[in-house]
Amino acid sequence: MELSIELKNVTKQFNLESGDLLAVDDVTFSVGAKEFVSLVGPSGCGKSTVLRMVAGLIEPTRGEVKVLGKAPDYCRKQRFFGWVAQDPVLLPWRNVLANVCLPLEVAGRLDKASTEKAQSLLRLVGLEGFERALPKQLSGGMKQRVAIARALVLEPSILLFDEPFGALDEITRQRMNLELLRIWSETSAAALLVTHSIAEAIFLSDRVVVMSPRPGRVKADIKIDLPRPRTTDMLRSQEFFNYTNSLTEALFHGERGA
């Protein structure tokens, strides 16, 4: 399989004033081309640290991270990544279209054709007609749609999601999961998602990588063999229930009270 992301024996240690902190230890997994993989694990287990190493924002202490066969820092500078975080981080004085166009401006690629591309992305995420709206006029789910459109505007090869729907209510979150799959299916990008939600990980992913409490290690790498496109009916299926049990067992096996 062609690999978009590859981590080999990756360890990250932070040197703090209070002492050394081993955040991630000997992590190995990969993400194939056009594959959707989720990282799940308890708070503080290093999921976001892994995501930042993939993005080239921090370097591993030991081990190797490759993105499209190259160093993550190179891919970041080439703008191969699209990033969506829990906070959409929209500039409040810029309207929706201007927020989506911001990466184009930074990259020096803003022109008529790219602006039309941004407008087409707003149609894709269901925000046609809101181009001139300010962030304060949008709901939480709408703001995240803007953030997703902004992440896609440079046509990235890798999409990185750090709890993008964690602040949303459950109904809106499920709707956004459906929207995310629909939007992702129209790209050729590989995706790596950090989430605390077992159900979300199963519903979105081709594979789920389960991490241990800190220091984060890979406890399991579970293939999700549900057909695409995914539907909400699958949430009530025996197969989905079985995957939920498998991930729950992987997460809590060996812990006190589990």
From TrEMBL:
<dbReference type="InterPro" id="IPR027417">
    <property type="entry name" value="P-loop_NTPase"/>
</dbReference>
<dbReference type="GO" id="GO:0005524">
    <property type="term" value="F:ATP binding"/>
</dbReference>
<dbReference type="GO" id="GO:0016887">
    <property type="term" value="F:ATP hydrolysis activity"/>
</dbReference>
<keyword id="KW-0067">ATP-binding</keyword>
<dbReference type="InterPro" id="IPR017871">
    <property type="entry name" value="ABC_transporter-like_CS"/>
</dbReference>
<keyword id="KW-0547">Nucleotide-binding</keyword>
<dbReference type="InterPro" id="IPR003593">
    <property type="entry name" value="AAA+_ATPase"/>
</dbReference>
<keyword id="KW-0813">Transport</keyword>
<dbReference type="Pfam" id="PF00005">
    <property type="entry name" value="ABC_tran"/>
</dbReference>
<protein>
    <submittedName>
        <fullName>Taurine import ATP-binding protein TauB</fullName>
        <ecNumber>3.6.3.36</ecNumber>
    </submittedName>
</protein>
<dbReference type="InterPro" id="IPR003439">
    <property type="entry name" value="ABC_transporter-like_ATP-bd"/>
</dbReference>
<dbReference type="InterPro" id="IPR050166">
    <property type="entry name" value="ABC_transporter_ATP-bind"/>
</dbReference>
<keyword id="KW-0378">Hydrolase</keyword>
<feature type="domain" description="ABC transporter">
    <location>
        <begin position="5"/>
        <end position="238"/>
    </location>
</feature>
